[in-house]
């Protein structure tokens, strides 16, 4: 079983370092995908191409916007045996990350974004470093949050606003959903709604920020490993 990790917006694969260290030490094969963050359809196509290069069964893990990407990329892929969502979007056909985050109160994402206009009329979105710690990574030490703020990668506004345009893989592939109980980006109520709708196995980590996999690596690894075991 290969575990494929897919980061979300305002992050990159280096955020999975503690997770990768623990999984590989336990003998798992791990691939950390580079999510382009340019558009849901194109991001899913890039991930699909990567998945096609992997032999054998796959457990696919997505954080935040990465959840929307894995939900699309895994559709029709019989190698993918489990979907694991970490504080993630789990859209239905026609839903976007933006529409889901607006479905419930409590998100600070609107006030946190710092837009950078691009030459093609698009806009790149960053989390303003001044609020990255309290709004995105509230349960991390300030120094660690500051490093993540500096190294964040932007997502386009189009990516976060693009609705899922194909049937979603969670309808046919078993899913696991790790909910961050103090999330200020995707409200816990929104995460719970998506998890229940998808019929996922659920664990809630109380007090966890949107970066739950960084602040609670042992619990996150145990959750991923449970998906690996139960999907064999």
Automatic annotation (TrEMBL):
The family database entries (PANTHER family) matched by this protein are listed as: AB HYDROLASE-1 DOMAIN-CONTAINING PROTEIN-RELATED, ESTERASE_LIPASE_THIOESTERASE DOMAIN-CONTAINING PROTEIN
Ranges for the AB hydrolase-1 domain? 3-222
Question: In Gene Ontology terms, what is one molecular function of this protein?
Answer: hydrolase activity
Keywords attached to this Swiss-Prot or TrEMBL record, sorted alphabetically, are: Hydrolase
The answer on whether this UniProt entry bears the keyword Hydrolase reads yes
Protein name, UniProt field: Alpha/beta hydrolase
